[in-house]
Amino acid sequence: MPATRPARTRLPRTLPLTAALLTATVALYTALVAFGNITDFGTNQQFVRHVLAMDTTFKDEDLMWRAVTSTGLQDAAYVVIIVWETAAALVLVAGTWFWARRDHDRARRLSTYGLLMVMLLFGAGFIAIGGEWFAMWQSKDWNGLDAATRAFLFSGIVLLVVRLPLGERGREPDAM
Predict the structure, then answer these.
(1) What is the 3-state secondary structure (H, E, C) of 41-75?
(2) Rounded to whole angstroms, how far apart are CA atoms 172 and 132?
(3) CA 64, CA 153: separation in Å to the nearest integer?
(4) Cα–Cα distances in Å, from 40 out to 28, 61, 79, 87, 134?
(5) How far apart are CA 50 and CA 42, in angstroms?
(6) 127-136 per-position pLDDT tens digit
(7) Which of 39, 55, 154, 174 is 20 to 30 A from 70, comparing alpha carbons?
(8) Other C-beta atoms within 10 Å of 176: how many?
(9) Which residues contact 136 (CB under 8 A, 6 or more apart)?
(10) Largest alpha-carbon pair distance within the chain?
(11) Are 112 and 98 a contacting pair, CB within 8 Å?
């Protein structure tokens, strides 16, 4: 009697689902941040004003020339941040929609764009520009580096998942 091979089992096709749910989570987070900034404009407006003014830093003469003390420019920067957050959230919602529709090419593309937008905001905007250029790290009261780092890392991890190879025709490779 010939030996029988065990039946080939297939793993559930979880990578697209995982990418969809993680993209949706970052979309939700980013939308809530934008919504909060719009509906409670003054709270983070003060945050942006203090960071740009550098008024709670060590006030080192060699750095203070970087301070932006014009409230008009500070508020313009804050509005740009809110617009960027809103746009990133919308792109991520669209990416989530395409994941749900199983249009993996568009889903990956839009998710990638949206996640990069979030990473640029928190990485370049808050960590590099706010944290280093405007010395936000020196402030006990107006230091958003921990929150920015969390958002940057979370978005980066989701980006890695989104960019994992899906295999032929947008599917995970079969398991052996």
Answers:
(1) HHHHHHHHHHHHHCCCCCCCCCCHHHCCCCHHHHH
(2) 41
(3) 30
(4) 17, 34, 13, 18, 24
(5) 12
(6) 999 999 999 9
(7) 39
(8) 7
(9) 51, 57, 126, 130, 142, 143, 144, 145
(10) 88
(11) no
| pLDDT tens per residue across span 3-48 | 666 555 443 479 999 999 999 999 999 999 999 999 999 999 999 9
> In this structure, which amino acid lies at residue 55?
D
Q: At which residue do the structure tokens 């979030």 appear?
A: 118
All residues at 6 or more sequence positions from 20 whose CB lies less than 8 Å from its CB, including other chains: 96, 99, 100, 107
Place of tokens 């003060």: 46
Question: Using CA atoms, how far apart are residues 122 and 159, in angstroms rounded to an integer?
Answer: 14
Query: 46: closest CA among 66, 74, 65?
Result: 74
Q: 124 phi and psi, to 5 degrees?
A: -75, -45
Instruction: Determine the length of the chain.
Output: 176
Structure tokens at 103: 């249009």
pTM across the whole model: 0.88
Using CA atoms of 133, 134, 139, 145 in order, give the dihedral in degrees to the nearest 10: -60
Cβ–Cβ < 8 Å for 174, 10: yes
Report the first-to-last Cα separation within the chain, whole angstroms.
24
